[in-house]
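Lab channel / #folding
Pinned by the channel admin:
"Please post every new chain as: sequence first, then the structure tokens as a reply. Keep commentary short and put observations after the output so the thread stays searchable."

First post following the new format, from NK:
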Amino acid sequence: MKKLAIQLSLVLFLSSMLIVGCKKYEDGPGLSFRNKRERAINTWKAKYALRDEVDATAWYNDWTLDMREDGRIEITTLDDNDSTLTQHGFWDLVNDNEEIRFQYTVPVQVEDVNTVTILRLKEDELWFRDVTDSATWEFRLIPADSAPADSTN
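Reply from TO:
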């Protein structure tokens, strides 16, 4: 019985160390059985957006980011005249899967490559930080087919 208790304690200890050690991103998740690329593949919408710690979510009400399995992206938004604007390109996980690199192809931008830091990557959440010369952005994305949610979390 004592041997079984010691073995059980050892298993619990090693399991807890594994869970603690699996946390890759600042805001989680602690453990996932889907690989990072599979979790990133989705059509996302902004649940919450910050620009220099000020709420900018309203700017992204009609914005979606479609990250496809083949590495392509499509970003859509509406302009002031309610016309759809579309940007195409590619995405990939880089720097030991801690960042996402976006490369834009249509329309070509002055800066056509952008790398963002992943804060959280779950099947139903993608949070990332984008530091530019003029601002620090933080995005909390949810699947585009999700019901509207409280924008404070």
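NK: The helical segments are 2-21, 36-40.
TO: also worth noting, The first helix runs from residue 2 to 21.
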